[in-house]
Amino acid sequence: LGEGPRMGSAVAARLDVIAERARLSLGGKSGSLPPISEDELVGICGRVSLGRATDEHAATDFASLHRDGVEAKPIAWVVGSDGLAMLLGAGSVAQRLRALGFEDAWMRKKLEDGHHFRLALFPVPGDVRPATWEGVLTVAADAYPEVAPILERHAAEIGSASFHELQARASSGFLRGSTFFDVNELSPLSRDSDDRYLTAARLAALGAAARAEHVRAWLYYAIGVSDLFAGTGWTQPPGVTGGVPSDTDMTRALPAAALANPSCSILAGADANAAAKDAFSTYTSARPVRELLTMNRLVTEFPAFHWVPIVLSVDDVA
């Protein structure tokens, strides 16, 4: 990701320029503009966020990187220069969001509920790290220390069992026939009274009775670790397969902050690289981009920041 937390005036000025071009690209007015290269985006992170469209709600929904706020959602998914280059590149807005892992059914429901999407652009935070299974569980344990022992106990099974296997076990058990998606879409009021919606407090209260399916449900609800998460640090778009990153690509792609912290660098080393590449052996038509994690924060805490509206309608998604 390049320049890390030290952002000079040159990066701030470049961020202003990128934001203006992004407004055209994501507003359907890109016309004959040349694509934004990955090199131009070094030192910049992005995040697609969701919020309510009305002015009265936008002030709170877009106050931090996640509409639920820093306390409720202390962790945020972000992309680096390669993800931004794809998002601001060719294809329709819907196609580009799909390539980041957004599913049509979810986008349609959010749009029908009166939400809209924005792209956050900001300098690379110092705490950014690859979204591998190791990275997710490490960040989750740091943000929610009350469940850290449970996460550690089930880490191996969470990383090896398939999403569908764990969801099936949950559905036949504590979800009482529902899916993770069904429960995650409950209203905030319903979540408060429904024990199927596992909060950190509810997961911690299970103690020794907590199983891997409980942990997988909580990761889905609390952090947004969906069925598309492969645990390799690279996106897995719905229904899309593509090229395998080379060893050089994978090493170069990791942010400096992650390389400096071996506990976060699951892709460091030949065995880990081979395992990650094997996970992408079924990709045949599109290249994945890096998935990264950072701690959520108020947008006013960034040295420079832009919200860019994403023009997307119900008619744009299946």
List the helices and strands and how they pair.
Blueprint: H1 9-26, E1 44-52, H2 55-61, H3 69-72, E2 75-78, H4 81-87, H5 93-99, H6 104-112, E3 115-123, E4 129-130, H7 133-143, H8 148-160, H9 163-172, H10 180-184, H11 188-193, H12 200-206, H13 212-223, H14 247-253, H15 256-259, H16 270-279, E5 292-295, E6 306-310
Antiparallel strand pairs: 1-3, 2-5, 3-6, 4-5
Tags for this entry?
3-stranded antiparallel β-sheet, globular, 318 residues, disordered N terminus
Descriptive overview:
With 318 residues, the chain is mainly α. Helices cover 43% and strands 10% of the residues. It is built from 16 helices and six strands. The chain has helices spanning 9-26, 55-61, 69-72, 81-87, 93-99, 104-112, 133-143, 148-160, 163-172, 180-184, 188-193, 200-206, 212-223, 247-253, 256-259, 270-279; strands at 44-52, 75-78, 115-123, 129-130, 292-295, 306-310. Strands 1-3-6 form a three-stranded antiparallel beta sheet. Strands 2-5-4 form a three-stranded antiparallel beta sheet, with helices on one face. Helix 8 packs across helix 13 (212-223) and helix 9 (163-172) packs across helix 13 (212-223). The longest helix is centred in the first third of the chain and has 18 residues, at 9-26. The radius of gyration is 19 Å and the shape is globular.
Profile the largest sheet: 3 strands, antiparallel
Give the H and E element order. Answer: HEHHEHHHEEHHHHHHHHHHEE
Count of extended strands: 6
The fraction of residues assigned to DSSP E strands is 5-15%
Q: In angstroms, what separates the terminal alpha carbons?
A: 34 Å
- Over all CA atoms, what is the radius of gyration? 19 Å
